[in-house]
Write a structure and sequence with these properties.
Helix content is about 40%, strand content about 20%. It contains 18 helices and 19 strands. Strand 18 (about 430-435) and strand 19 (about 435-440) form a beta hairpin. Helix 3 (about 95-115) packs parallel to helix 4 (about 135-150). The relative contact order is 0.17. The structure holds iron/sulfur cluster.
Length: about 475
């Protein structure tokens, strides 16, 4: 495995790929928070298929294993122009009350299949803006989940925070509700950038919130950043990086902005000429990596950094990293029950997704039906490739024998075409192959998705990659 942080060297900048390599390997690619990726889900997978997977879970004795719960809360008070999430922008707070009524019906339908009192070791509220719900709304949600599931006292209970919607007192009330992990959406501290993306949140307020969160004992506090936003320059982003290092969150998620206005309507409000070019984006990524490593952060993977004593960094050192819909995680793979509009779950060898519009979601629940409208039952080949792709994404390392034994294949034989296809990446020093394994090199981590993509059977069949975000 790649035991050393990919960029944790003083000569980090010398490991930057050349412009030629960038031009060649900077291809569009999935983020592999799942494999197969969500765009491969099919309408032929129905709520009945989901129910069958849940019953199979019970039949194979998996019911005793803890679950992960995800609740999607889609409302936001104002629109960020870079947004590519499934959200509903409204100032009508009472919409959340109606939404909770429907969530309650969905929970009842889920519990009818899963059985009452299933143990939950992880609960995550995402959005949208989960804190669009007021205290009463969040308390009602937690009460309904606590009534139907057994929320482990040791559970991770996390929530995505839009800093514009909370203050220290609210963080205190969230802690009292059992939340122990926070993720702040910062994106960029520069006022011009914030104006260009329609998300104004003064740095001082975020610093105050962070101080409150620490005083309240929240663990693994995460900050989300985005590079490639309009009006960002190397100099402005350097200032944001310095502020983030001063803020010293336990974790940093650094995402590349993908400008796809034809696909995401809010992005049409961003002027293409305000966007940094590809070369500047690569430099911003490189400077971010250098700044965070110099500040003591461990490079976890394609978009995550963590302080060395954070569980994510420890898991990376011990080869125990996982990847799920929230990105990198320390939690072993467990079944994920997803609630709410557009939410994606994973049970056994299936993925399932709820209706994407509120109208359809409500309509199905009005009919007393689970709102699952698409998904995928993984084939044996999907499960095998998922293991290989996750090994690349999480460890930067694939052990042929381990995969061969676990999946009853001869790796070199089975993946002979893929090993040949890795040739250009090997030639550029991005990957090493021996008789026993594949290892992603430090420079190769820039292109870890490109390495994983070689093993993606769906991409092999469909080279139309323009729908995905750029790699760097
Ligand atoms: S980026 Fe987040 S807060 Fe902004 S509109 Fe999208 S979901 Fe809402």
């Amino acid at each position: 495995m790649n035991s050393s942080p990919a960029f944790a060297t003083a000569s980090h900048s010398q490991e930057l790929p050349s412009p030629t390599v960038l031009r060649r390997f900077d291809v569009a690619g999935p983020r592999y928070t799942s494999y197969p990726t969500a765009d491969r889900f099919v309408d032929a997978f129905t709520a009945d298929d989901y129910v069958q997977a849940v019953h199979q879970r019970a039949a194979t004795g998996m019911n005793g294993r803890p679950l992960s719960l995800y609740v999607h809360l889609p409302f936001c008070e104002s629109l960020c122009y870079y947004c590519a999430c499934n959200k509903i922008v409204t100032r009508h707070k009472h919409w959340a009350v109606e939404y909770l009524d429907y969530l309650e019906r969905e929970v009842a339908l889920q519990v009818a299949e899963l059985g009452r009192g299933a143990m939950v070791s992880q609960l995550h509220l995402g959005g949208g803006t989960p804190t669009f719900l007021d205290d009463e709304g969040l308390a009602r949600l937690l009460e309904m989940l606590g009534r139907e599931f057994t929320l482990s006292p040791e559970r991770e209970q996390s929530i995505e925070i839009d800093p514009r919607t909370v203050d220290g007192a609210r963080l205190e009330r969230l802690a009292a509700m059992g939340f122990n992990r926070l993720s702040f959406g910062v994106q960029d501290f520069d006022p011009d950038v914030q104006k260009a993306v329609h998300r104004i949140q003064p740095a001082a307020e975020v610093f105050d919130l962070m101080a409150s969160a620490r005083a309240l004992g929240y663990r693994s506090i995460n900050i989300d950043l985005i590079y490639g936003l309009p009006k960002q320059s190397r100099a402005s982003f350097d200032r944001t990086l310095a502020q983030v290092c001063e803020l010293r969150p336990d974790r940093i998620a650094l995402y590349a902005y993908a400008h796809l206005p034809e696909r995401f309507k809010p992005q049409r409000r961003i002027a293409a000429e305000d966007l940094p070019d590809a070369k500047t984006k690569v430099e911003m990524l490189s400077r971010a990596i250098a700044a965070f490593t110099a500040a003591g952060y461990v490079y976890i993977g394609m978009d995550h950094f963590a302080l060395p004593d954070d569980p994510l960094a420890i898991a990376k050192r011990q080869g125990r990293l996982h990847r799920n819909f929230q990105g990198y995680s320390t939690q072993p793979d467990c079944d994920l029950v997803a609630l709410g509009v557009s939410a994606i779950g994973r049970v056994g060898a299936t993925y399932s997704q709820n209706a994407k519009t509120l109208e359809e979601y409500y309509d199905l629940l009005d009919q007393g039906r689970l709102p699952v409208v698409r998904g995928l039952a993984l084939t044996r080949d999907d499960v095998l490739r998922r293991a290989v792709i996750m090994a690349i994404m999480c460890q930067g390392h694939v052990d042929f024998e381990a995969i061969s034994l676990a999946h009853l294949v001869d790796f070199r034989d089975h993946f002979a075409p893929e090993l040949v296809a890795l040739g250009p990446l090997i030639a550029q020093g991005l990957v090493h192959i021996t008789d026993h394994d594949i290892e992603v090199t430090p420079t190769g981590w820039f292109f870890v998705r490109a390495v994983a993509m070689v093993f993606d059977r769906y991409l092999q069949a469909d080279r139309n990659r323009t729908r995905f975000s750029r790699i760097v």
